[in-house]
Design a protein that fits this description.
Strand order of the largest sheet: 7-6-10-9-8-11
Mean pLDDT: 83
Number of helices: 17
Helix content: 40-55%
Radius of gyration: 24 Å
Distance between the termini: 29 Å
Oligomer: single chain
Largest sheet: 6 strands, mixed
Low-confidence stretches: 129-135
Shape: globular
């Protein structure tokens, strides 16, 4: 297999700018010529081994950050944006999109935000009768999408919040559980915890200082909700500082993000980084073992595995996704090259959709994306009952996976033939940007291909992809 060349011009420029170095000064510290540095920063040349070593020794840089997934994320997001019918007839070659993402990531993000604004405007026009005369009837990013993108481009890892949660978990005394530590922390903040027969998982009454937690919820869920309250009352300054840094466009986005940060803290405290990473490696990422050891749910464990991207101590780069029964993605994150559709559902050939048919079982799948990258994917249904008769049951399916080169570190890869090409299912991201010509599950034509309609032929699809 050919060695992939590393182009990281944007990362080099970002580092040099943060150091307030001129190109001449930066080139001298890297031990390269000024023209050579200029070519690397403009992605005309790949980053050499000499430069990689210099970045590590001279600046203490985690060189794995040079090949982070930002470029792949931007390429995937831009291609999906370009699949909008508004761009019909103006198809950009993939090479141009890749060039924009690697050379001008700021411009690429601005383009994506502009399209989001366009979509918001179209949606508002569809409800014009409600919008007329309202002061807030102006195009703006959806708060939910804005927060989703914040976590997406932070690689779903927030160092300050993660370390604060890990420090909190260390306060657990000898023989004392994290649950007891959490109850003590809430008590010291003047909060009394009451376990009630209620549908709401968590409800805090600031006037009385009582935190009501559902007695019907599992132990893992109860502890998680109490930790979330700890984040809100004891880590408020940290959360607010992180929100100030993010500079959200609306109060609604900031409020949603704050709850997201509190949830992040709860998960990181329930599964402290160093201890969780070590145990995950020793049990070969067995989700049930980890759930038992840390008193967490399968979904919480899978989500936590996808956040183990601490510089200098990274875990396996996983993707994590949750879908509902309609196939709509409700949670998504990828530290791998695999990216998910920003709008709509996931590829129907992916095993996450089959998980609903086999409740309580783990489904394994070897899959290959159109770019030739191969993955191992694990899927399972997740039911969330309310705990009483007649209450609606929320059903989701989750998927966790990584590139197949990490298969030896996964217990779920045992017995799978990862060397046989035919064992890999051909999956995609979105039909609009999937280049597969003969997919029997295609719902819409690919954007960058010409269609041929033969009136004398009716195959699986009513057209052929040229």
């Amino acid at each position: 297999m050919a060695i992939q060349k590393l182009y990281a011009g944007a990362k080099l420029r970002e580092l040099r700018t943060n150091l307030a170095h001129t190109q001449k000064e930066f080139a001298a510290r890297l031990g390269v010529s000024l023209p050579y540095l200029n070519q690397m920063e403009n992605n005309n040349r790949p980053v050499s081994t000499t430069v990689v070593l210099a970045l590590a020794s001279e600046f203490g840089m985690d060189v794995t950050e040079l090949s982070s997934g930002d470029s792949e994320r931007l390429v995937s997001d831009m291609r999906e944006v370009l699949s909008d019918p508004v761009f019909e007839g103006d198809v950009l070659p993939l090479a141009d999109v890749q060039l924009a993402a690697s050379n001008a990531p700021g411009l690429a993000r601005a383009f994506i935000k502009l399209h989001q604004s366009h979509r918001q405007t179209q949606e508002r026009l569809a409800y014009l009768d409600e919008a007329l005369g309202r002061e807030d009837a102006r195009p703006s990013p959806s708060p939910w999408e804005e927060v989703r993108d914040f976590f997406h481009y932070c690689d779903n890892y927030l160092d300050a919040v993660d370390r604060a949660a890990e420090y909190f978990a260390r306060d657990t005394g000898t023989g004392q559980s994290l649950r007891d530590t959490t109850l003590e922390a809430l008590s010291s903040a003047g909060i009394t915890v009451a376990f009630d027969e209620t549908d709401a998982l968590r409800r805090y009454d600031p006037a009385s200082g009582v935190l009501h937690v559902s007695a019907r919820a599992s132990q893992a869920t109860q502890t998680f909700q109490m930790l979330l309250q700890v984040a809100l009352v004891r880590q408020n300054d940290l959360l607010e500082a992180t929100l100030d840094f993010a500079r959200f466009n609306s109060p609604a986005a900031r409020d949603i993000a704050k709850m997201g940060l509190a949830n992040y803290f709860a998960g990181a405290a329930l599964m402290p980084y160093a201890r969780f990473l070590e145990r995950a490696q020793s049990c070969r990422h067995d989700l049930e073992v980890l759930a038992s050891d840390f008193g967490a749910s399968i979904e919480q464990v899978a989500h936590r595995l996808s956040t183990l991207q601490r510089p200098g101590s990274k875990g396996i780069p996983f993707f994590f996704v949750r879908v509902d029964q309609a196939g709509t993605i409700t949670k998504r994150h990828s530290a791998t090259r695999l990216q998910f559709a920003r709008f709509g559902g996931a590829c129907p050939l992916w095993n996450v959709h089959s998980a609903f048919e086999t409740p309580g079982r783990f489904l394994r799948q070897l899959a290959e994306t159109p770019d030739g990258v191969r993955y191992i994917s694990l899927a399972r249904d997740i039911s969330k009952p309310a705990g009483r008769f007649g209450a609606p049951v929320r059903r989701y399916a989750i998927s966790l996976g990584c590139e197949v080169r990490h298969a030896p570190a996964l217990v779920y890869a045992d017995g799978m033939d990862t060397t046989r090409a035919s064992a890999f299912e051909p999956i995609g991201i979105s039909c609009r940007i999937c280049e597969r010509k003969h997919c029997h599950q295609r719902s819409v034509p690919p954007l960058e291909r010409q269609l041929v309609v033969d009136p004398n032929l009716r195959d699986v699809l009513p057209y052929q992809v040229d």
